[in-house]
Amino acid sequence: MFFNRKGMEDKPEEVLLNMEVYACNSCNGWMRKDFATEDLKCPLCGNETSMEMRELPQINN
Ligand SMILES: [Zn+2]
Fold first, then answer.
1. Spacing of C-alpha 56 from chain mean position
2. What superkingdom heads the lineage (predicted)?
3. Of the residues 10, 23, 39, 50, which has the fewest C-beta atoms closer than 10 A?
4. 35 C-alpha to center of ligand 1: Å?
5. Which residues have a beta carbon within 5 Å of ligand 1, which is an ion?
6. In which element (H, E) is residue 47 found?
């Protein structure tokens, strides 16, 4: 497991939470754990994903 810190948002008014996401090994696709596909494959290209932590804006739904 490794940490990937690229793509940090710069929106100081939003609350950022450290979220588990599944990031694709082949393309830029990723998904939040809460919305991950059943088989944890990339929703864009179908390849394997790796879990990592990202700071993401809190969502309210
Ligand atoms: Zn992909």
1. 8
2. Bacteria
3. 10
4. 15
5. 24, 26-27, 29, 42, 44-45, 47
6. none
